[in-house]
Amino acid sequence: MKKVGVIGGGQLAWMMAKEAKSRAIELIVQTPNPDDPAAKITQNPILGAIADAKSTQKLGDRCDVITFENEFVNLEELKVLARQGACFRPHLTSLEPLLDKADQRQYLQKIRLPVPRFQVIDKDAKITSEYGFPVVLKARRHGYDGRGTFILYSQNELESLWNRLERPSMLLEEFIPFTCELAVMAARGVNGEIVLYPVVETEQEKQVCRRVLAPAMLPLEVKAEIQRIAETLLDRLQVVGIFGIELFLTPDNRVLVNEIAPRTHNSGHFTLDACNISQFAMQLEAVTGMPLKSPQMTCNSAVMVNLLGLENSHSDYLTQREQLAAIPGAVVHWYSKSESRIGRKLGHVTVLLEDANKSRAIAQRIESIWYGRSAT
Ligand code: ADP
């Protein structure tokens, strides 16, 4: 039996653990809290902070390979473990240019992938937008679900926010008036073969992903460009594992890379129910050195809606979940987090559809069950 260690114990590791069970893979997670979703369904989790390399060392002692569900790691300390023989997949060199949003933008530019125009703002700089307004200011590290990403509409707003944050080094980038946001999951095996899932359309509200429509309806040349971007990136980084690539589509059909997640991603949750192999199984198979399956959808289309916490409470939202499960073609995934917080990702629902034209209406139905009549 292969033993895979995972740094992180949230919903991504929880979904990976379920896939591990049916593949005779033992999954061991490193996570700070015994109540985290994956810690509750795996044996003997290592209880330690994500960035605690001593915990990762213990993880490595029990596993054949270590992979990631969370990239908020201390890379320098992990490098020491790698030199001592710990096997990380993806390799630490594949992660290195990606963990900091400014480094990531610079790396993508260096390998000639299209990105929004950006500047790196340092403490002593005078902060001014070269791109007019609105403009987007981003924390370099530890941002997620829109935390650390700010859309600002005037010089005054920009300056006062940056001062309030105590002038950290940040990424300032042009606001892209995108026609839609896209994402693709791409995996690369130990032999260098690369496979891509269908490109999806993602919709965010207040910078947080609310729904994903799969597949995205796109001109062939846009799909080809996304394939080129994914293959270039995974090859250049010699990735072993799966990456999520978030993209903007501009009004003149240009594709720009917004962000790379060096792991499974929310935009790939639909693969659990709508594909021949899920993104979580793909990560496990890639990092354990198996040949990669060609991922395909097993239905015409699918819509995935995130179930975000509505309040700070211990509610398990059973009534809403039962109503969602009654929608034809729906599969509800509930992460069993110990408490609800406003905006926290508590679960998701995927509905498999024959007719792609129905996906927005279904998403609206889900959201009106979940958020009540005020859903938009
Ligand atoms: P996070 O890492 O928290 O997910 P992102 O950088 O992906 O943050 O940004 C979250 C969302 O903010 C994006 O999905 C998009 O809707 C919006 N956004 C981010 N950067 C830009 C940009 N340059 N132009 C327009 N919208 C943006």
Q: Would you report the number of β strands?
A: 17
Total of DSSP H or I helical runs spanning 4+ residues: 12
Number of domains: 3
Q: Helix share of residues?
A: 25-40%
Mean pLDDT: 96
Give a quick summary of the entry.
The chain has 376 residues and is an alpha+beta fold. 29% of the residues lie in helices and 27% in strands.
Secondary structure layout:
Blueprint: E1 2-7, H1 11-21, E2 25-31, H2 37-41, E3 46-47, H3 53-62, E4 65-68, H4 75-83, H5 92-95, H6 101-110, E5 118-121, E6 135-139, E7 149-152, H7 155-164, E8 170-174, E9 180-188, E10 194-196, E11 200-205, E12 208-214, H8 220-236, E13 241-249, E14 255-261, H9 271-274, H10 279-287, E15 301-308, H11 318-325, E16 330-334, E17 345-353, H12 359-371
Parallel strand pairs: 1-2, 1-4, 2-3
Antiparallel strand pairs: 5-8, 6-7, 6-8, 9-10, 9-11, 9-13, 11-12, 12-15, 13-14, 15-17, 16-17
Helix pairs in contact: 1-10
Bound molecules: adenosine-5'-diphosphate (ADP).
Adenosine-5'-diphosphate (ADP) is lined by residues 116, 136, 138, 143-149, 173, 175-176, 181, 204, 207, 246, 258-259.
